[in-house]
Structures are given as C-alpha cells and as structure tokens.
Amino acid sequence: MSKPHARHDRAVVARATRIAAETYKVFRPQILQPTRGGLAISTARQVAQYLAHCSGQVPLNRLAKLFHRDITTIMHNVALIEDWRDAPEFDELMQTLEAKFNGAD
Q1: Residue 41: which residues within 8 A CB-CB, separation 6 or more?
Q2: Cα–Cα distance, 11 to 54 (Å, whole number)
Q3: Which tens digit of pLDDT belongs to each residue from 3-40?
Q4: Residues 83/72, Cβ–Cβ less than 8 Å
Q5: The CATH fold of domain 3-101
Q6: What gap in Å lies between CA 91 and CA 60, rounded to an integer?
Q7: Fewer CB atoms < 10 Å away: N or C end of the chain?
Q8: CB 9 within 8 A of CB 66
Q9: pTM of the entire predicted model
Q10: How far apart are CA 73 and CA 53, in angstroms?
Q11: Are 98 and 17 spatial neighbours (Cβ–Cβ below 8 Å)?
C-alpha cells in the first residue's frame, strides 16, 4: 500500500469508527479490537466498515488489514448492512451517518 493511500485509508477508518462509536455509544478502540465484543461493538464495527468502504471508497482488502479481519468477514459485514438497509428506520439512520461522514452534519 503506497503511503498516500495508507494515510487516506487510516483517516477514512478513523472518521468511520468515530461516527459509529458515537452512534452506538462504544469506545473507538473497541471497534478495532481483535475480538468480536458485544452486540453494540460488533454492530458499530460493521457500520464503520460499511461507511469506510461505501462512502470512503476504501477497498475491501485494505479494510481487512486495517480492521485486522479476513476479507471475507469484511465482505460479509458490508453485505449485512446492505441487507439491513431494507428496513426504512435503519436506512434512515444510515443516510444520516453517511451525511455526517461526508461532512453534512
């Protein structure tokens, strides 16, 4: 990974994890821990991964390295959030988080 990409990717992950941590009332370091954690932590991690990939344009393989997860786990989590967006309330939450991520908070 080239240095400009690495710096960008880390900044995107930092922004996504901050937003997810605030939303799910968990500490940011818990989102990046190697263990699953409780429901709020794992959901915050999934949301952060989704934001970093879909809004931040970080490729899945680089997210896997930054989150210390296998790429298949990242792919599963992104697909899971996409499925959850079928529920109007969750989709509305994600629209709000995407706007916050993109600086429209």
Answers
A1: 24, 26, 30, 31, 33
A2: 15
A3: 778 999 999 999 999 999 999 999 999 999 988 899 99
A4: no
A5: Chromosomal Replication Initiator Protein Dnaa; Chain: A; (1.10.1750)
A6: 22
A7: C
A8: yes
A9: 0.93
A10: 13
A11: no
Asked whether the CA dihedral 84, 57, 21, 74 is positive or negative, the reply is positive
Residue 4, both tokens:
């400009």
DSSP 8-72: HHHHHHHHHHHHHHHHHT--HHHHHSSS--SHHHHHHHHHHHHIIIIIT---HHHHHHHTT--HH
Q: What is the mean pLDDT of residues 72-99?
A: 98
Mean per-residue pLDDT, 57-71: 96
Task: Report the pLDDT averaged over residues 70-76.
Answer: 97
Helix (H, G, I), strand (E, B) or coil at 77: helix
Side-chain half-sphere exposure of 62, counting CA atoms within 13 A: 18
